[in-house]
Amino acid sequence: MTRVDSFTDDEEGVMFPRLVPLAIVMVTLAGLLQWIVPVQIVSDIAFLEDIDPDRLVAFGALVAVGGFALSLAGYQALRRQGADVDPAEPVRVLVTDGVFRWTRNPIYLGMWIALGGIGLAFATDWLLILVAPASVIVNFAAVRPEEAYLAQKFGGLYRSYERRVPRYFFMH
Questions:
Q1: CA dist 75 to 13, 28, 30, 39, 172, Å?
Q2: Secondary structure of residue 171 in the 3-state scheme
Q3: pLDDT tens track for 119-144
Q4: 23, 13 contact by CB (below 8 A)
Q5: Alpha-carbon Rg of the chain, whole angstroms?
Q6: What does the alpha-carbon distance between residue 90 and residue 15 come to, in Å, rounded to a whole number?
Q7: Residues whose CB is less than 8 angstroms from the CB of residue 63 and which lie 6 or more positions away in sequence, other chains included
Q8: Per-residue model confidence as pLDDT tens digits over 39-87
Q9: pTM score, whole prediction
């Protein structure tokens, strides 16, 4: 029996990563690495290219706000349909409207965009470096198992949604 086969409608043990603690761990780890082994790519580029550091901070903040807004839109779309946003609770409804029309994972995607924006705004190169491998890990450790769970639970309805809407904005 695979992990996916063990899911049932009333099972309370369905557990996917919680994003806030994951983001806090990433920011903390990036801060520690930036302090212990400083990398100054963003700040060096800003000075080499005569980019106003304030504009870089503003751009990073704008990107971070956009990422947070995308995650929030995902939460709101789930709430509107009566879905529980707690990853420990079983999924009862397949949400395909709102921001879920453009990406199947707006909450994850928004978190990665927000963390990238924070990395730019605060010139925390380690955060920018860690976002890529962390997103790959989450993709394989959480997103793919969630997709398998949803495919098992909703069958053809989910498979049709999966064909129509990319996992992230730019890739299926």
A1: 21, 24, 26, 34, 21
A2: strand
A3: 999 888 899 999 988 888 888 888 89
A4: no
A5: 18
A6: 8
A7: 113, 114, 116, 117, 120, 121
A8: 877 766 655 566 777 888 899 999 999 999 999 999 999 999 988 777 6
A9: 0.80
